[in-house]
Structures are given as structure tokens and as C-alpha cells.
Design brief:
Elements lengths: L1 H13 L4 H34 L4 H29 L1 H4 L2 H14 L4 H29 L5 H27 L5 H11 L2 H5 L1 H6 L4 H6 L3 H11 L21 H7 L2 H26 L1 H8 L5 H30 L1 H21 L7 H17 L1 H7 L10 H53 L39
Amino acid sequence: MAEASNEILRKMDDAGVTGVHWKVMFISGMGFFTDAYDLFIIGVVVALLKQEWHPSTLQVGLVTSTSLIASAIGALAFGRIADMFGRKRVYGYECLLLSAGALATAFSPSMLWLIIFRFLLGIGIGGDYPVSATIMSEYAGKCTRGMLISFVFAMQAAGLIFGPLIAVGLLATHVSHDWVWRILLAVGALPPLAVFRARRTIHETPRYLLAAGRQNEFEAASNSIFGVHTNPEKEPETAEAHGAFWEGFQRLISNRRLAIYLIGASAAWFLMDFAYYGNTVSSPLVLQAVSPKESLLTRTLVQLAIFAVAAAPGYFVAAYTIDKIGRKLIQALGFAVMAASFAAMALIPNIAHLVVPFLIIYGISYFFTEFGPNSTTFVYPAEIFPVEGRTTGHGIASAAGKVGAFVGVFLFPFLMDWHGLFAAESAAAIICVLGLVVTWPCSPKPKAKASKKSPKPDQNCGPLNSPSNPAPNVGAFAKID
């Protein structure tokens, strides 16, 4: 039985991209479409609410950042539960939370209720991070794993473009601004709701089933990747599979190597999201500082152009190159160029009055964010932890990222009010330098060159349970050692 299981794993590892892989990628990516859509439109919503409800700076900070701190809670909770009971057991329910929260925000009667409903929305967004990333990771072959996980995250690009398109369309009409912001928020409920059924009917991942000792289901799930569909009888789960809720966190940090990886992944994600979310959510404020006389519609069109020309290509360049030049180099390069771009926006004299040079630098920062750490911080945790702790580890890392996003989004308006672009972009530049410092010593150095030759032991173009990777993917839920 062990030899048969190993043969199936080898077949999965060597597989190219099949229709099942693309299906998993699409339904997994819809949550990130919504995440990016909400990331952009909340800035437009806040700009409209300032005209309608005249919120304080504190209220603005809470509206834009509450969903982010809630995302950290969602990532930790769903991540651990998915390791305890299986990925499929919880998959899809985070979509319902996300949709319910998005729809509820559209009917908010006050700033207080808007903050409360965005907390619910954030729980759903956070829960999607570890589960979707891990499902794609555990379905993917060895030499396309980075690409497929990156493509899941690249669905953010569609959300970043779709959001401004909807906003521009509504702002160009004579619809009341009170209706505009409500419609913008309500639209975010549709994409995750559309894939709920598909998520509930997907197979549990083969690697999780094998690790849980459910052999028949493992074979059926792995065969489905190649178009062979069977309906095996559901097997009982081992008692070891569940464990205590806090046990999974303890087991990760008790292993020195995994603890270092966890610190590296979490710190890099925290720092990246501080700079990225702060700039993106507050992009209307940033562009207003550059062109204060332009309308919200014009600034939204500019942001759409930046996303389409600079940000979206960055995601796809990352997906194309990540299995060729490696995660670590991409992450380090991204942090370095982000730091240089933010420093230029902060320090070049009168940069706010040089519209075209400013927008070029702003666009470069977006390209290297998406090409760099915004993609790699999502991919890394889906690969470097063992199967019995993978969603737990990813949940911790993504929760750290969302805490960083919360801090960045909350502080950015205060920094802009204090000393404008100089204060805000200087802070972002310093944070990115710290990200570069953290990346080098605390991240593994996998390369993923796909070739006809057998991969070298130190290449990440190998099974998740390769000698170079501490992630055992076969056998029972043994202790991490």
C-alpha cells in the first residue's frame, strides 16, 4: 500500500497542468478577486462618505482597517480548523461570511454599523487565505506549483481593475452618491457567492487524505486530477487528525527550522502589507495630494490606469517566473525596488507637483509589489510547512500580514495629515528596507526550474516532501521533527 501511495504521489508531482488544476485555481481565486475589489473600492467609498456623513479621521481609519484585523482572526481560525478537520470541511463557508458581510455593509445606517459589518467581511476574507492557498498547493505538480499558487493570488489583478471600472461607471452617472457607495459595497458579495457550490463539491486534497490515513479517498481524489472519477465510500478519520486547537501552533514553533521559516514568512508579510495596503487603500488621498483640483472620477480613472498598466502585469510576471528564478530572489528584488520607489516619492523635491514623474514612480512601485513580495508572501507558506500544519502555518503568516495591513491602513491617513507624502512614503520605504533585511536570513532559498532533467535536491521543483523541504506529505499525522 505504501509503495502504491508513493507511486500515486510521484505521478501527481510529475503531472502537468490539467483541467482540474485550472478549475481549482479559478474557484480558489474568486476570494482574492473580492479581496482586491474591496481593497480598492473602500477608498472610493470613504471619499464619498466624507461628503455624506463627514466622519472623523478616527472613523475613517476604523472603516478602512477593521476588516483587516478581522482578517487576521479569520486566517488563524480557519487555518487551524482546516488542519484539524480537513480543507474541504470548511471550504466555501468563508465565502458565505464574506458575501454576508459585503451585502450587510451596503445597508449600513451609520459609521458604527459599517465598521461592525466590515468586521464580518474581514473574517471571511482572512479565512480564505490559508485554505485556498493550501488546496492549490496540495493539488499542484512539482514544477508548476509556484505558478498555480501565484495564479490563485493573481485573481487580485482582476479585482483591482474591476473595482475602478464599476466605480468609474457609477460616478459618471447622475446616481446619488449615497446609492453609489452602497452599490459598490454590495457588488463585492457576488463573486464569492458564485463559487460557493463549486467549493463545496471539490474533492478533499489527496495529500491531506493520505496523511489522514483515508487511502480509498486519497486514490479517488488523485485520480480525479487525471479525469478518472470514482465515488469511494467515506472512511473514518483517525483521532490523531483533530488534536487540540492550540496544539498545532505549538508544534510549529517547537521545531527550530519551521519556527525560523514561520518568523520569516510572517515578518515579511507583515511588512509588505503595511506598505502595500497603506498606499492602496489611501490611494485617493495620495492622488489628491498630487492633483488636489481633480475630481474623484478623474483620480479613479488614474488609479485604474495604474492598476491595468503596472499592477496587473506584475502578478502574471511573478506567476511566469516564480518556478524559474525562485521565490527568494523575487521577494528581495521586489522589496528593494519598492523601498527605492517610496523613498523617491518622499524625498524628491516638489514631486507632488510633477504629476507624470510621480505617476511613473507610483506605477513602478505597484509593478514590483505584485511581482515581488505580494505574490511570494502568499506562495511561501503554502509550501514550507508539513501537511498536518500547513494551513495553520499559512494562517499565522497571513494573519501577521493582515495585522501589518491594519497598522498601515490605520496610520496612513494620520501620516498624510501630519506631513503629507513625505511622512507616509518615508514610512513605507523604511518598512520595505526592513522587509529586505528579513527576507535574506529567514526565508528558504528554493529554486524551481522546470526541466526534463531530474531536479537537484536543493531545487524546489520537487515534491512537497522532498529532502530539501521539511514538509512530510505522506503517512499519519506524526509529530513534526
